[in-house]
Amino acid sequence: MSVAASVALAVAERVERTGGARAGLVAWRTLAQSASDVEVRARAILAGLRCALALRDGDALDGLTASWGTVDAGVWDEAIGSLCVELVRAGLGPCATALARADARRHPTARSLYAFARCLDVACDAGAADAFRDAIARAEREGARAIELAARVRRAAILARAWETLTEALAEAGRVPPAAVPPASRLVLASVLLRAPSRFSRAAALGLLDALVEGGDEALAARALGLAARWADEVRDGLTPLEADRLVALFGREAAVRTSPRARDAARVLARIAAAKDERALAAALDGATGVDPRLAPLHARARDVLGGRYEAPPSGADAPPGDPARRRLFRWSELLDVVVAMRDRAPSRAASALRSLVEAEASGERLPVEVLGVAQAALAYGDPELGAVAAELVARRLREVSAGAPPRGWALLADTLAGLGMAELEGSARRASVAAKESGAAEALGTSLAREGWELAKRGERARAIARLREAKALLVGPR
Questions:
Q1: Which helix (H) or strand (E) is 233 found in, with range?
Q2: What is the DSSP string of 434-462?
Q3: Exposed/middle/buried for residue 55 (C-beta within 10 Å: 0-12, 13-18, 19+)
Q4: What is the pLDDT of residues 299-353, one digit of tens each?
Q5: Is the pTM of this model over 0.70?
Q6: What sign does the dihedral 425-382-335-413 (CA atoms) show?
């Protein structure tokens, strides 16, 4: 850098120091426009961006971001990454994404590509997974191991949100050694691996959570316990002995007992329910559940009465969901029984009303028990248009995201029911869930469904989509050569 360039930078710094961010912005923009030296122009633009951020001047940020593309030399990815973090914290996410994109195009290093991918990730942009893939490839070439692993963790988390990419997410997570990433990343890895069809992968994920609970970071321990509890609630009677042992050990830790004294007893009851081989063992396990939470007793008694065919007077429908979260969950279970009773009593309109309440609860953010899918499947098969429409809406909502639990009789039966009703899109999602869960015959069923859809698309002239479906069907039915 020449003496004249050093003096120009010093003058602009003095203007900002004495006149504040607005005066500094004018000085830095002027210098950026007049500088012939690439390094001086780069430093001026970066300083101008900092001033524009302080002023929350969107127009200035846009102009300086556009100018950043003219910096045709030098590596500034660390400075740009820091600016992007500050922009996101200031609520200027779109500006951060634009700046990161400009830097990644200008000079695609592993760090610049990762910064761009993270901005897309924070913005929930659909292109984030592909951007992380580019960052991974570049990091491997550069030998930037930390960036590679961080990108793999985030890519796995994104891909794990949809059934069609869950298998790829699990493969991505499997490429990350947990010991090589920070504790917060291990929590993300565990959340992905808990969705694996392999009980050994799920047990390993519980082991990661156990280590986080014991790690001394109270906030991270609380998140790990919450993740384990939500997973156990979804899996329920699908819990294997290996997972049950890990779960009981996890909730027996001192940190877990302090947070939730009854959690270990609840985990033991879940293990007993999952291990029950006959009605007597199941009844004994359910009695144990009421010992942990006595509020379950009336619900269990009602369920037994329903199974026994006992008559119930139709509910008035005047009851509102309780405000207390624990009591509201019990209320939703009671509503599930309302649907079952109404269908048993050949009252589809009443069943639709009760099921609609559950749909509204799901739409408002409540997490309903996985058994709701079994009830919805029965409602779809009932044959009533109103009840079927409500059930289809509920199924659609549940299939939008990946969950650890499957419907009581499996994803394949739900997919067959949807296929019989001509609901091809929902059928496809349910079949993908069946494949991800490695249910028997799932890959062949999905392949056949995709082939059928592909030929229908071809008949309609949608060539690109038809080819994509037929290629996917071939991969499932024929497999790699």
A1: helix 218-235
A2: HHHTT-TTHHHHHHHHHHHHHHHHHHTT-
A3: middle
A4: 999 999 888 888 887 776 656 677 788 788 889 999 999 999 999 999 999 999 9
A5: yes
A6: negative
